Amino acid sequence: MAASASPAASPPRRRHSHRDDDSPCRRKRRVSPSPPRSPSPGADADRRRRSRDSPPDPDRRRDAKPSEEKENGHAKPGKDEGGEDDRPPRRARVSDGEEDGDRRRRRSRVSDDEKEDGRRRRRARDSDEERDDRRGKRDRERDSRRHRRRSPSSESGSSPDDRRRRRHRRDEGTRRRDDRRRRDDDRGERRRSPENREPTPLPPPPPLLPEMIPGRTGGIYIPPFRMAQMMRDVEDKSSPEYQRLTWDALKKSINGLVNKVNATNIKNIVPELFAENLVRGRGLFCQSCIKSQMASPGFTDVFAALVAVVNTKFPEIGRLLLVRVVLQLKRAYKRNDKPQLLAATKFIAHLVNQVVAHELVALELLTVLLENPTDDSVEVAVGFVKECGAMLQDLSPQGLHAIFERFRGILHEGEIDKRVQFLIEGLFAIRKAKFQGFPAIRPELDLVEQDDQFTHEISLEDDLDPETNLNVFRANQNFVEDEKAYENLKRSILGAESSEDEEGSDAASDEEDEESDEEDDEEQMEIKDRTETNLVNLRRTIYLTIMSSVDFEEAGHKLMKIKLEPGQEMELCIMLLECCSQERTYLRYYGLLGQRFCMINKVHQENFEKCFVQQYSMIHRLETNKLRNVAKFFAHLLGTDALPWHVLAYIRLTEEDTTSSSRIFIKILFQELSEHLGIRLLNERLNDPNMQGSFESIFPKDHPKNTRFSINFFTSIGLGGITESLREHLKNMPRLIMQQQKPESSESESSGSESGSEGSSSGSSSESESSSDESDRRRSKKRRKRT
């Protein structure tokens, strides 16, 4: 039966949804829950405002539900046909006043809870702001999920309770942001206010002496002025702490000097470098040079020049650096480290150029690189030959020729890359041009004479010790004695100037007067340069000017600007003749330049005449190529009348007075003159009666033998036309001899008549004796024939 049905058997009660709350019946029932009354308009408005602000009332919804169902006319389970409800009766509906009171109490209770919850959250936010951020993120994610769960019908119309909740959340988020902004502003105020700012503590002063901290850093940083003060205050100069201070100062000084050296200031850096204790810091010096060269390979020749200067005074430092560079090269070769290998080979090449390393080191290195050729090894070898090929050409031409033959073989094999083949072809072109553009030593870096240099010869296969312990500080028991010994050595190297600078200038007036007198005496003294440094520099300047000029006019203009001291004009002629002889073939450039100088100044003409005599006297020392160039040079001067023809008087053309070299010189000289002047004009010059005294030695007429030798010589070189007068003289020579002999015979006859009478008796007796002797000989011969 429906009346006796239990509540469990009845269908479950539906929960209210947003759709039920927003139904028109629900809104109608909420607006007029009782028979109409006539309240005042203000009370209605107040009641509506309170209803909007109050939280949702589940009891009211529950009470209004049956009435709504009844008004809608839907039949519910548990009701009979007459509309009577058989379920237990519900509690009676409360009045509007009681409902408003309950609503007010609930609202006050909710507001108190919200305030407490807000204070709790603010405390938690002050303690940990990150927790608030995470909570806010979770709330937003929850809202977004809740929003996504809504159905489209519920999104279209929202209940007042939902609007209140959303508004409440917005207000809560705004409140949180305002609190956070206010808290950040307070914190910024406290940070900016000078009263709340805590004073920064001052750094502690450095200790009197730094502790011995092992490692590469060497301890804490100390300003230079503080370091100098500490070193002055130390009383025990042999203590390990003081030695450590001097070691750090030495390391910084050597690194600074090596890093700032270049081709311009190297002459100023060298004295400063010798002022440091290089014996103690030889490991530091080598390490700094290698690191600086690795960092900037373009300055390799500068570092090599610096090492060359140091090697003249301390050969062990030069050997140590060479050993370390060779070990670095071997290490890079095993690791296939091409950049480090290129840097090491370039350093060795310039050490060979400075004659610090022997040329055998370079040849051995090239042999190793080209033994099993690869693209990289051949490229490294080509770069190495470019750097030191000019020096190897002078020191070991046969070894360099063998290396180029190996290059030619690699090129013919064709197993390497095309790019590397082009590099080898370019290297052959550079060799053909005598390594122009790749000088062994730049003039500004040529600081050491080869006689003063120490050359080290090591092998790549030797077991070498890099002596890395020299890079690390070690206490020395004889520190003070070693420092004094180096001071004495430094004075001997640099002179007494360094010691005088250190002592200061605290002297009395008498001492100053004495010093002024000494300076006057020194000014009056004449200083003579016995090292010929100025002469060498002059020759270098002349050579560079001649070789760098485009034509002879530019060269002459530049050479005339050089200020020559009296007596140095001869050096200009000698250098011009030397440059001409060094050329592979004769260049008319030198003849025109010599002609220009002879025409400008008679002094140069006289100097070239002296050079002619000197060269002819030492002609047997010259090679054939040099001899040909010198002969053509003087032939040009004679053919252009820049040199007087009486210089030929120094040549005596006889078999006894000439050698094979001198005969070649005369041959080339007269052949060039015939080309310049022609055989007819040359013959006229040689037959000039005013110059016959100068040509008697070339065309001798004193003896037929010498005359025949001169005629045969000029005929053999194709210049028989200039010997016509000499041939006529040779034809007329017997008649001349007879004419000379006639007066001699007449003189002899007159003297014979005077002595004839005296010796007539003796003559007759001797004739009789001789006739008797001849008769006896004939008789004896006849007897022998008969027998």
From TrEMBL:
Localization, UniProt: Nucleus
Region (Disordered): 1-213, 493-531, 737-787
Residue ranges with Low complexity bias: 748-769
Biased segments, Pro residues type: 200-209
Comp. bias intervals (Basic residues): 778-787
InterPro entries: ARM-type_fold, CWC22_splicing_factor, Initiation_fac_eIF4g_MI, MIF4G-like_typ-3
Single Gene Ontology MF annotation: RNA binding
Family: Belongs to the CWC22 family.
Protein name: MI domain-containing protein
